[in-house]
Amino acid sequence: MKAKRIRFPIVVKRGSCAVKIYRDRKPEGTYYRVAYHLGGKRHRLNFRDLQAATNEAEAKASQLSRGDVDAVQLTGRDRLVYGRALEAIREHALPLDAAALEYSEARKLLDGVSLIDAARFYARHHQRGIKRKGVAAAVQEMIAAKAAKGVSDVYLADLRYRLGVFAEAFHCDGSALAPDDLARFFDDLSLSPRSYNNFYRTLRTFFAFAQKHGWLSKEVDLLARVEKRSEKRAPVEIFTSTELTALLQEASAEVAPALALAAFAGLRSAEILRLDWSDIERHQGFIEVAAHKAKTATRRIVPIPENLSRWLAIAPRNAARVWPHSKDRFFKAMVRAADNAKIKWKQNALRHSFISYRLAVVPDVNRVALEAGNSPQMIFRHYRELATPEQAATWFAIVPQAALNVVPIGLGSQETL
User: 253 with 316: CB under 8 angstroms?
Assistant: First the structure.
């Protein structure tokens, strides 16, 4: 059976566009010429192989029918690259030049980060179910939720301060934040290791709250590039009886009871800020530090020594709280009293002093640990042998000068110091 004769020129049509293949026989061999018109000009391409010429003619006819003028004018590898690029963006219905411009701008913004990595990160942040919520609005909702649960005013004030600083730094949706943003935020905090770590813990709680409410992806750890700082414990410092006497003499009538509670009962500042007068008057000769007011969330009973009872007897009662003002005003009042007394203010030294002097009077680590709300190991490690019994006796004999004729508060049948 004879092969079907091929008639030239071969016409390859796509729609209204046609590309012709001519055969040209020469002494050196047979050539196949692909010819088409573009922009009023006739274009020709020569091939030694008919199949190659046919493939090219079909490709050109398809491109002409689509109006793909640029591709028609490309040759070789460039045409292959162009075709692949068009195929890659076909499903997105974008012009090739628009896709290229968008890619270029994205790379500039990412500053060397892979566009694929950035897209994956975005997808994790904006997975299905993630709702848009501004940082400031999320902060307000968390504070309102904590207040509804009945947390202490001191804790709420701390949340307002720390989360307020955070909200002021980021005027955006929580889902728009990235670990690098948090790393820079913490780098800009000029704080002690403890305060720095308190910010870290507060934000960890806030992000967990945002994830629970669907404002932040659970797959993202925004604090992944932030490391907590080492809190090296400073050497324990205590006040002398002379220093405390000067401090109390220079303190205002409102702040003196707070100083006395720290110095003679070992209450922490946070516990004093939460303390009500009823916590002192409810138990004869003792102060009740309720679990929700204690740092360790454990209720304890602290004995009132005779000299403390005299300081409490002359204290003004202008509100239910022992200290009716803000935390900031509390610390400023203490530092001001130290400045007026011309002594150096030592952080936590009033509580350290109480534990040290109390241990000199009652050499029972377990008992002092219960009164102070510390572990016996902590007491044994940091407070032993810092004061003598004679120094302790002087410390617990400090009374207000005007209190000699005042009836002490709540001494009752408590055990003698």
Answer: yes
Same domain, 203 and 327: no
Calpha distance 86→127 (Å, rounded): 28
CB 192 within 8 A of CB 234: no
Same domain flag for 252 and 379: yes
Query: How far lies 339's CA from each of 247, 288, 311, 342, 406, in Å?
Result: 9, 31, 21, 5, 29
274 and 322 Cβ atoms separated by less than 8 Å: no
225 contact partners, CB below 8 Å, separation of at least 6: 179, 180, 182, 183
**Is the dihedral angle over the CA atoms 359, 409, 350, 370 positive or is it negative?**
positive
Whether 84 maps to a domain, the answer reads no
User: How confident is the model over 307-343, as pLDDT tens digits?
Assistant: 999 999 999 988 889 998 888 899 999 999 999 999 9
Pairing of strands 29-38, 17-26: antiparallel
pTM (2 d.p.): 0.50
Check whether 411 has a pLDDT greater than 60.
no
261 and 283 fall within a common domain = yes
The total domain count for the chain is: 3
Q: Which of 340, 365, 362 is nearest to 416 (CA)?
A: 362
In contact, 358 and 392? CB cutoff 8 Å: yes
Give the C-alpha separation, 73 to 91, whole Å: 24
Radius of gyration of the chain (CA): 40
Rounded Cα distance between 173 and 130, Å, is 11
Domain containing residue 59: 10-73
Whether 378 and 252 map to the same domain: the answer is yes
Q: Which residues 6+ apart lie within 8 Å of 117 measured at CB?
A: none
Query: Which residues, listed in sequence order, are joined to residue 37 by a DSSP beta bridge?
Result: 42
Residues 51 and 117 placed together within one structural domain of the fold: no
Q: How far apart are CA 213 and CA 78, in angstroms?
A: 51
For all residues of the chain together, what is the average pLDDT? 83
- Unique residue bearing structure tokens 């220093």: 243
Q: What is the pLDDT of residues 241-273, one digit of tens each?
A: 999 999 999 999 999 999 999 999 999 988 999
Instruction: Give dist(CA 265, CA 91) in Å, integer.
Output: 74
